[in-house]
Design a protein that fits this description.
Number of strands of chain B: 13
Number of helices of chain B: 12
Radius of gyration of chain A: 23 Å
Order of helices and strands of chain B: HHHHEEEHEHHEEHEHEEHEEHHEE
Strand content of chain A: 15-25%
Structural class of chain A: alpha/beta
Shape of chain A: elongated
Strand order of the largest sheet of chain B: 8-10-11-13-12
Structural class of chain B: alpha+beta
Strand order of the largest sheet of chain A: 7-6-8-9-10-11
Helix content of chain B: 55-70%
Shape of chain B: rod-shaped
Helix content of chain A: 40-55%
Number of strands of chain A: 11
Oligomer: heterodimer
Amino acid sequence: MRILRAIIITLLLLPPAQALAYDVLVLQSLREKGYDEAVKGVRRECRASMRTVVLSDYAEADLTRIIREEHPKLVIAVGDRAVEAAETVRGTPVLYMMALNPKPRQNVTGVGMLLDPTRYLNVFNNLGSKRVGVVYDPARSGAYLKRAQTAARRSGIDLVVREVRAPKETPAMLESLRGKVDAVWMLPDLTAVSPASTEAYFLFSQGEGVPVVTFADVYLSMGGAVALGIDRFDIGRQIGEMAQSVLDGTPVEEISPQSPRRVLTKSNDGVLRRLKAMIGTGGP
Amino acid sequence: MRKTWRFFRYRNSFRFRLYFIFTGTIALLTAAFASFYVMTEINGYRSTLEREGRLLATILAQNARLPLFAENQEALSLLAAATARYPSVLFVSISNTDGRIITSLGNHKKIEKGGIEMSVPVTSPGPELSPESVLLGHKQVDAERVIGRVHLQLDTSGARERLNQLVVASLAIALLFWIVVSLLCYQILKRVTSSFNLLLAGIEDIGSGKLSARVELEGNDELDRAANAINAMAASLELRELENLSLQEELLKAMKLEVQEEKKRVMARLIHTNKMTSLGLLLSSMAHEINNPNASIRFSGHNIAKIWTDVVPLLDGILREEGEFYLGGVPYQTARDALAQNAVNIVENSERIARVVQGLRDYGVGDGSKARPNMEINATVSAALSVLACQMKQDVQLKTSLGTDIPVINGNQQQIEQVLINLILNAMQALPDGRGEVFLTTRYDSAAAEVVVEVQDTGTGISPDMIDRLFEPFSSTKLDKGGSGLGLYISQYIVAERGGRLQLSSQPGKGTLARVVLPVEQETPHLGEA
């Protein structure tokens, strides 16, 4: 009888013991469809064992203790909140994805949500726009804009930039672009593009007769001309490949941060017709 | 006074009442429709004004989204001024979520009762449109965030002016409509009720007794069918009236005939009664004329007998001495007994004559109303038979069986005699061809303390339906033979008056039994008797 009881207890304790033995700790900011898609992409490319911790499920997750006790070989942070939480991780490589403003840090790399500026610049070239207005918050998108300006100079496009520090400044900054631009680049900047100010972009587009190139297809229905969207599953796959590479022994420092490699381009033909502009649609 | 009378006459008129009801109903309906129309129009105008105000406020709120978000007061003032240019807008203001008015135009006064105020929220898209949410693939929902309010005050003075115009126009149209429809109603009612008037006039003529009058309506509608029915009824009544008149005449004739017949019967009875009275007087006179010589005859008979009694010893001596001799051609010894017998016969027959005459006299003249307490029934029967002696025919065999020890009764001998004579005469007359037997029996029923006299014949009998009517006055099977129909009626009256009863039982072909039952009064013991 004692033997049987010991066997039962052992069997009950075995699965948790097995679960604790994994290679990759996935820190997910919250239970979100977009994050889930990305995580699926990771699992698609990386066959390593994983444990997923959703931070929103805990009042305060003790990430340091988890890593100390469970010794994952790699941490994948999904979303800005997870990236921020992963800043406490020392000694374990961290890969990030689905984060708008990740800060460059040692032992950390990943795939951002902002497309390579050249993708946008190609679209502007196709539209024939040489003066492109951009409204941005230096604190959020300063680095990205520098990259964009560098690439723009190479492409012969003049970026007319306006800085904003608060969302309510956006309409006025857009007003200041009247007559000075051929197109407007709508960045995924939380200050420059707020729910209340979104409309201002498209009113400006309508008033000035210039197309707005944006980062998500939902804006096409509001008056956007072209949208360059990201593929969340493919971003996951990118991270999966990175993770597999790290697990295979490649140092994280040797892997530079990447932009999403796959672009979903969509256009509002009605707007384009009205603006008498044509754009060649194509894949990444 | 004349006007009042005329009004009451019209008020009772079917046409006037219909016209009054129609015009009243039309007036009510017109007023209701006019009120409904005015209310609907006013509500519609107010609703339009509200819609216009809401539309203006919504447009202003839509246009003010970005300026309000950017706190661009200049742009908001321009938008408010553009809205305030609408004539119906009295006041316009735009405020933020804290309630602070960013801009306003017009005089904001306390709104009057029924005035219109509009307040529309200024909204901006929800957080689903933030870049982060968009990149994460959040679906767009209609959730919006309120960032301020647009407030409009609308002028409703136009509605009041419109209401006044509408009321005046509606009243005028309603009045005109009512007048036109009332005139049309009058003409229609006049045409429709003319048939009623004709029908009514015809009915009044018929009702007043002029049954030959007819309602002159031609057609096949309800009124015409009613008129035809009334005409048919009048014709039927007229026919019945004629039949009634004819029947009345026939009835009068029949009554006259019946009265004449009755008069004849009464006269016949009066004559009969008169005859009987005369017969009584005649009997009385006859009795007087007969009694005198009869008394002389009886006296002579007595004398003859007395004298013969005295003469016989003398003549017996002569016979002994001289031998046989003759008297009146008859040997003495024969004549001796024959003469004595003749003298006795003379007296007896004379006495008989006296009794018969006395009986006739008592029957015709005597006082029949007094009852005697010691009436002997057998003596009464003998007296009746003596009266009827001359009526007896040789073919009728009257057999009497008089009982013995029959107590005397309280009664009037003459009346009971009359009863018995009636019964015996009826029995004799019932015999076919006057031949047959009549049985007369007297007896005493001690158990019932009644004296019974029965007269039975062997005649033709009486049919059952007739026997019950024989006690009715003037009911007789021999009216054609001079019967008065009063015999049994009077007899029953007499017997019943004495506390008795008269019973008839008969079988057709086997004769009739008449039974007179008279009570015997029990002697009440006198005080002092043992």
